[in-house]
Amino acid sequence: MSQFVDRVVLHVSGGDGGHGVASVHREKFKPLGGPDGGDGGSGGDVVLVVDAQVTTLLEFHRAPHRSAQKGGVGKGGHKDGADGDDVELRVPDGTVVSTPEGEVLADMLGDGTRFVIAAGGRGGLGNASLASARRIAPGFALLGEPGEARTVVLELKTVADVALVGYPSAGKSSLVAAMSAARPKIADYPFTTLTPNLGVVEAGDVRFTIADVPGLIEGASEGRGLGLEFLRHVERCSVIAHVLDTATLEPDRDPVRDLDVILGELGRYEADADTVPLSERPAIVVLNKVDTTDGRDMAELVAPQLRERGYEVFTVSAASHEGLRELGFGMARYVAADRAARARPTAPQRLVLRPTASDDAGFRVTVEEHEGRTLYRVSGGRPERWVRQTDFSNDEAIGYLADRLARAGVEDALYRAGALAGAEVVIGTLADGVIFDWHPTVGGGGTVAGPRGSDVRLEGDATRASRSERRLEHARRMDAKTAARQELASERQAGRWVAPDVTDGTGAADGSGAVDGTGAADGTGAADGAGATDAADGTGAPAPEQAGEQVDRTSGQG
Ligand SMILES: Nc1nc2c(ncn2[C@@H]2O[C@H](COP(=O)(O)OP(=O)(O)OP(=O)(O)O)[C@@H](O)[C@H]2O)c(=O)[nH]1
Ligand SMILES: [Mg+2]
Hints:
It is built from eleven helices and 20 strands. It has helices spanning 58-62, 127-130, 172-179, 255-267, 293-308, 324-342, 381-388, 395-407, 410-416, 467-493, 524-532; strands spanning 7-13, 46-50, 65-67, 87-91, 95-98, 104-108, 114-118, 149-156, 162-165, 197-203, 206-212, 239-245, 283-288, 312-315, 350-352, 364-370, 373-379, 424-427, 434-438, 551-552. β18 (424-427) and β19 form a beta hairpin. It is elongated. Guanosine-5'-triphosphate (GTP) binds next to α3. Residues 160-336 form the OBG-type G domain. Residues 64-88, 443-558 are annotated as: Disordered. Belongs to the TRAFAC class OBG-HflX-like GTPase superfamily. OBG GTPase family. Monomer.
């Protein structure tokens, strides 16, 4: 217990989602039994849980990297991958979770309070789940998403029920040592204690924690000595115990004057706005070192004055243990009263962090210059997620991505931003996004296929075109596509769009370069998918409206 760790930087990552699988049901006399590829399981979450038995953050200091289990890969025969197990990290009551920049994410109070700190990735859908009237037997599956990774700061604020404050060498650490099992450093020079020492005290049936705060001196609020910084450790204490040295040899000090100096400094400490200022907190006085003759005389002299000022006074000796039993029971009374009054949440609070929820619905297109080229960047929760879910070694999967983007209005937005056929479009960040040469569904910036607007439901057509409209639309699309393809071919011949790793722009499977760098695309899903699609009726002849060529991958990372 000697090491007091009240602030740790923790690196957490949720488990990656398992990949979905593309598979086709096989049975005797029924060679094309339909898609039966299962979904990948979700990755496990990393969850913080308040545990009243835990009193320090020491464990995380020793092992600051924690991650949850991956989701299992889907299998044929409609078998879904298993979900990854969550990882529960036990933290003390009163742990405050914040970002490295200082933004508070959660204030964890109450035994059992839970907080999802890094969500696991969703599993990818298997081809059975992707099948629809439009796409009867998909020859692809979606990749699992990588788990969320983040760095947070854990800080312990409710470290002590009782805060021992006072001048250096008043005997605060000696009292912690005498009353609890903790063994802090004790010495007869000032500022022996540099960080608070925490100890657990049991008095009757009350169990509470006491902490000494590094010694305070006059001017601490202006930074003298160790300053007031350490008072944040006792910001939430139930009672302050002023430890006064009755046997000090310094000429200008006596217990009453010491108390006034400390009260003055506490009054200048600004605690959290929602807590009672430290100077107005219940307080008791502990007159220490009465084992010495001078000390006892001094204690007898000042005790009445202090009682007159309304303090409950305990005369003790950390050295001889005199009065410590009474002091323990006295402290327990204050702690119990405060606990009852505060009505600490007995039921655990439920805290769930969904950091991406707010921007999940929309997306933005921005135009940027990068190394002399114009880039159109699409950023937004959904488009970026769809890219992560795409197996770029499978053209049908790329076509599905293109459909999703078009239906969400990304094409519209690109037109509005001024993009023309062949423009470079990046989805996500340059570092781990994917760069496409853009080939719109409809060329020339004229009418745009599909419903406009950003509120379009992704699956299922919100507005149903009539049959003839749709036929017309299809013809128009095919014309536009042919035109775009010809344009592309001539550009390729002119040598403008040749990427080093792609030769013909359709079948090449680099599988890694085009996918983000998080390791989600390890190729397992893709491999399963490729093996199982041999018999799929959809591979050779994708439905015309699938438009697998719309998004034409030419290069990997920018
Ligand atoms: N005689 C006597 N000496 C004591 C008693 N309590 C503490 N001391 C001595 O006082 C000195 C300071 O004790 P600490 O417990 O280190 O004091 P502290 O308040 O923690 O001091 P800082 O950590 O410097 O703020 C040590 O030499 C202790 O042995 C006591 O009850 N009687
Ligand atoms: Mg000390």
